[in-house]
Amino acid sequence: MDDIGDTGATPRPRGRKETEVLMRWLRIAAVSNAVIFDFFGRSVFTTEAVIRLNPEDGGTRQSILVISNEVGVRRAKALRKAGHH
């Protein structure tokens, strides 16, 4: 497990297995010049898989990491009221 330090984050496995599983899946499902959107990209396993797979097979895949605003409604209203958009 990663050392979480003072962040309070939930510890996660280092991800080697997840990355290798994604590399296997990408070899099967994605052409060598695919653009891959990762809508659940907090752990960046998909991007790492693309970075490792491209030199392996000469691919030019791209990975686009998409994250959502995880601020709750009340917090968002307070931030807007304070002048943050």
Name the strands of the widest sheet in spatial order: 1-2
List the total number of helices: 3
In round numbers, the mean pLDDT is: 82
What fraction of residues sit in β-strands?
5-15%
Approximate shape: elongated
Query: Would you identify the regions where 5 or more consecutive residues have pLDDT less than 50?
Result: 1-7
Oligomeric state of the chains present here = single chain
Order of helices and strands: HEHEH
Tally of discrete structural domains: 1
The helix content is 40-55%
Strand tally is 2
Compute the gyration radius: what is it?
17 Å
Separation of the first and last Cα atoms: 36 Å
Largest sheet: 2 strands, parallel
For the structure shown, list the relevant keywords.
3 helices, two-stranded parallel ribbon, disordered N terminus
